[in-house]
Amino acid sequence: MDCVQAWRRWYQPASYYCLKIMAEGSRGTVALFKSSDENALNDDRYLTLLEENNFTVNLVPTLSFEYQTENLRERLQQPYKYSGIILTSPRSAESVNQAMADLLCAWKEMRHYCVGVKTGETAVNLLGLKNLVGQTCGNAENLSSLIVKDFQKGCIPLPLLFPCSSLKLDTLPRTLAEHNVPIDIVNSYVTVPHPHLRDFVMQLSQKKPDYLVFFSPSGVTFSLPYLKEFGLIASVKNISLGNTTAHALEEAKIGVSRICNKPTPEALIIALNSLQIK
Q: Taking Cα atoms as reference points, which of 135, 123, 166, 172 lies closest to residue 151?
């Protein structure tokens, strides 16, 4: 069974178990606390690369998303009021697509800002946006700095539209406000725990993983109560994808063994390799 087939099997609504891909001569078990991503092929990159490096993989669907598009749709119908869009996650791009499947041409002529390669790919594929900057920024803080520089150069004469989660961090809005960069914040989706998260964590407890990998601060918040309930925090190594996720772990008094400098499977492999016992 290849990775795509395995994912599809796992993702069936009736499934209440973690997907485990066993690697021959495993170097350890890695539990990935990720959102239940609709783009299965993208997430298979993590499965494939981890398996190729002889890790056993557990996928734990951590987050679900509920889109709220009415207010966003109203703004998308008025592109003349904006200089562009800020997209800080693939879900923010998906929320734009949910609000207006056929984005007005005026938006496609603007300069837009996004964090991460995955967000950029989603914006291109779903929305047809070509003039994107910021994919390599890595986090909201770096993207904020880029936007501030463009604003100071006079490249942002009108507000930027910022569709985001109700759980957004205040880093970007605060930084932009400090520099008088105008933005229009619209809560376009709600981040909630995956409905079967507890069941998946309980499955993990049958054989304790060696590494827990967290992809977002909200994933940390939703997962920790169950990880503590089933005794899965002690004596494991915790890895975060990015500083904001690491900060969420530290705030919860959970040690962070490694921080991936980029949200990519390649960066995760580097982190895991550095933690391997000699």
A: 172
pTM above 0.85, yes or no: no
Phi, psi torsion values for 258, nearest 5 degrees: -150, 150
- Give the pair of three-digit tokens for residue 62: 């951590």
**Collapsing DSSP states into helix, strand and coil, what is residue 38?**
coil
pLDDT tens readout for residues 84-115: 999 998 899 999 999 999 999 999 999 999 98
Of the CA atoms within 13 Å of residue 223, those in its CB half-sphere come to 30
Question: What is d(CA 101, CA 89) in angstroms, rounded to the nearest whole number?
Answer: 18
Under the phi-then-psi rule, with left for phi > 0, alpha for psi from -120 to 50, and beta for the rest, what region is 28? left
Q: Token digits for 137?
A: 């920024």
The single residue listed with the structure tokens 């946006």 is 129
State pLDDT tens for residues 168-177.
Answer: 668 899 999 9
